UniProtKB/TrEMBL annotation:
Signal peptide: none annotated. The keyword Transcription regulation applies. This is L-rhamnose operon transcriptional activator rhaR. PANTHER family: ARAC-FAMILY TRANSCRIPTIONAL REGULATOR, HTH-TYPE TRANSCRIPTIONAL REGULATOR EXSA. One of its GO terms (molecular function) is sequence-specific DNA binding. Keywords: DNA-binding, Transcription, Transcription regulation. Residues 1-91 form the HTH araC/xylS-type domain. The keyword Transcription applies. It comes from the Bacteria. Pfam families: HTH_18. Transmembrane segments: none annotated.
Length: 95
């Protein structure tokens, strides 16, 4: 089971049986980040690792990491990494 695929704050709320605002306040106080930020960081770290150390397709990486579409994955990745996943993989493997 892939714990990152499709994880939503609502699932955490249901499991813990607390309100969204209560959870977000407690989480931010403890982690100094929002739940969404932590989930995003974990998904991005997994995607980067797969781009570096595997040969699976970028579409499959987007799917495995829980991004709703390849286009969205490219957009989020480029915004954060300043290059596309394809460029990242090419330059990483080149080194």
């Amino acid at each position: 089971m892939d714990v990152l695929k499709g994880i939503k704050v609502e699932q955490v709320l249901d499991h813990l049986r607390i309100s969204r605002s209560n959870l977000e306040l407690r989480f931010k106080a403890e982690m100094n980040k929002t739940i969404h930020q932590v989930i995003h960081q974990q998904k991005m770290a997994r995607a980067i690792s797969l781009l570096k150390y595997s040969d699976i397709s970028i579409q499959e990486i987007a799917d495995v990491c829980g991004y709703p579409s390849l286009q969205y994955f490219y957009s989020v990745f480029k915004k954060e990494q300043k290059q596309t996943p394809k460029e990242f993989r090419y330059f990483w493997k080149k080194e």
